[in-house]
Design brief:
This is Trehalose-phosphate synthase. The chain has a ten-stranded mixed sheet with strand order 5-6-4-1-7-8-9-12-11-10, with helices on both faces. Strands 15-14-13-16-17-18 form a six-stranded parallel sheet, sandwiched between helices. By secondary structure, it is of the alpha/beta class. The radius of gyration is 23 Å and the shape is globular. The protein has two domains: 241 residues, Rossmann fold; 208 residues, Rossmann fold, CATH 3.40.50.2000. Helix 9 crosses helix 12, helix 10 crosses helix 15 and helix 12 packs across helix 13. The protein contains 17 helices and 18 strands. The longest helix has 21 residues. Helix content is 44%, strand content 20%. The chain binds adenosine-5'-diphosphate-glucose. Adenosine-5'-diphosphate-glucose binds next to helix 1, strand 13, strand 14 and helix 13.
Length: 471
């Protein structure tokens, strides 16, 4: 029998990617993305296990230890990657949960593979969890795991956290298998969401489709109760501050400014290349501001980092083409020899380089059409100069907390342009005041505090009457 752990995290992906070095050696490297960035800090020093897919189709690597964690890989075949991950997770659930920004694809065959893979994850959790352990399941790819796991292991404390929004009932209604999802989630003791509105949407769906009693934020299942509430995620404030305050990162921030020709203002966007992030809307606004001559390409430079993401899903390939076409057009129209208006970077960077970009940028543009939280907004607030400015979409979870940002509706391009210009033209004391209050807010709720709050809610959830493991 393999070793078991008192604290187990289950997420679609392990926090590491396998990379091949130029001399052909295979190594594990921390993978980018919001969930990993957040949970990496939480797992450090806990001696827990992480159950997840290692990122390559085929046989799973043997379990191994890395960064003070026990990593327990789950295998996915080529077909399962296509149906469970790219299909049902990213082409059905992702668009439905993000306000149907693109039309979701519904396939029955994907759903049955989703079910099968969720079962595999539940089995893996049951294998590594010690008697009475806490298992923390993450995100929309694993919504059936809580119920499957509870059936096998009623002794466990099971939590689930949704990193993305939970949609309004009217949109959730479209989802074939909606009851199965709700029942799957109700296998947990506590369900965490980014915003109170997300928890409310979930509870309304439970009332409507399962006809269960809901009192306040608690669902009554008769033999036990499940609470659904907001626990907004954050970042590793201390860790990031340490990085950004280092001499080398500050020097790199100055170097970035110099390399751009010491412009008056650097504008920055950092996103996974995803249609939810509003990159097209942002570029449209920037292009129009240059065309209107309200921004000057010799004085105002935009850096857009677009991290490669879900590159085999058609909507993502199309989006990349559209964005790169727009970048080309803007630079064709407004750049001069040796001085580009828009620097476009389609790759991953280490934390030091990201921090240096945040430190160099005068104005951060975070304009998603829908986003569970958006950690980039909080990272910028932590790293930027005292008079940095944040333009932030109302449709992010972060906007609930960061109300001192220059808030915008990215669908309204005229309004978005206006907010960008407000940030560009604001007197330094105003920017400083706004940034001060946002900074205080972010540092009060670090990712470590978030995990503590989440686990305290999970611990406080009412215990099920039977805590005996099924034989
Ligand atoms: P994501 O959609 O991935 O996360 P976000 O919250 O912005 O979005 O997190 C992205 C993370 O990746 C940030 O830490 C950022 O610094 C990092 N990153 C981005 N581009 C990078 C690059 N090129 N190189 C290196 N690092 C890069 C999901 C949800 C969000 C939610 C998080 C956490 O969609 O709404 O905030 O999970 O819950």
């Amino acid at each position: 029998m393999s070793e078991t752990y008192d604290f187990v995290v289950a997420a679609n992906r392990l926090p590491v990617d396998r990379v091949t070095t130029p001399d052909g050696e295979s190594q594990w490297r921390r993978s980018p993305g919001g969930l990993v960035t957040a949970m990496d800090a939480v797992m450090r020093g806990r001696d827990g296990a992480w159950v997840g897919w290692a990122g390559d189709p085929g046989e799973a690597p043997e379990p191994f230890d890395d960064g003070g964690m026990h990593l327990h890989p789950v295998a996915l075949s080529e077909q399962e990657v296509a149906d469970y991950y790219e299909g049902h997770s990213n082409d059905t659930l992702w668009p439905v949960y993000h306000d149907v920004i693109i039309t979701p694809t519904f396939r029955r065959s994907w759903r049955s593979v989703y079910r099968r893979v969720n079962r595999r994850f539940a089995n893996a959790c049951a294998e590594v969890a010690a008697q009475g352990a806490t298992v923390w399941v993450h995100d929309y790819q694993l919504q059936l795991v809580p119920e499957m796991l509870r059936e096998m292991r009623p002794d466990l404390r099971i939590g689930w956290f949704n990193h993305i929004p939970f949609p309004a009932v009217e949109l959730f209604a479209q989802l074939p298998g909606r009851e199965e999802i709700l029942e799957g989630l109700l296998g947990a003791d506590f369900l965490g969401f980014q915003r109170t509105e997300d928890a409310g949407n979930f509870l309304r769906a439970v009332r409507q489709y399962l006809d269960l009693d809901v009192t306040g934020d608690v669902v009554d299942l008769g033999e036990r109760q499940v609470r659904a509430a907001a626990v907004p995620i954050s970042i590793d404030v201390e860790g990031l501050r340490e990085i950004v305050e280092s001499d080398s990162v500050q020097a790199r921030a100055r170097e970035i400014r110099e390399q751009l020709g010491n412009p008056e203002k650097i504008l920055l966007g950092v996103d996974r290349l995803d249609y939810t992030k509003g990159i097209r809307h942002r570029l449209k606004a920037f292009g129009e501001l240059l065309a209107d001559e309200r921004l000057d390409p010799s004085k105002h430079k935009l850096i857009q980092v677009a991290t490669p993401s879900r590159e085999r899903v058609k909507a993502y390939m199309d989006l990349r083409d559209q964005i790169e076409l727009t970048v080309g057009r803007i630079n064709g129209d407004f750049s001069s020899i040796g001085a580009t208006a828009l620097t476009y970077l389609h790759r991953s960077f280490d934390r030091e380089e990201m921090a240096a970009m945040f430190a160099a940028a005068d104005i951060m543009l975070v304009t998603p059409l829908r986003d569970g939280m958006n950690l980039v907004a909080k990272e910028y607030v932590t790293c930027c100069a005292d008079d940095g400015a944040l333009v932030l979409s109302e449709f992010t979870g972060a906007a609930t907390e960061l109300s001192d940002a220059y808030l915008c509706n990215p669908h309204d391009i005229a309004g978005l342009k206006q907010q960008i210009m407000k940030a560009v033209d604001a007197p330094a004391p105003q920017r400083r005041q706004r940034m001060d209050s946002m900074r205080a807010l972010v540092s009060e709720n670090s990712v470590q505090q978030w995990a503590k709050n989440y686990l305290a809610s999970l611990e406080a959830a009412p215990k099920a009457p039977s805590t005996q493991a099924a034989s």
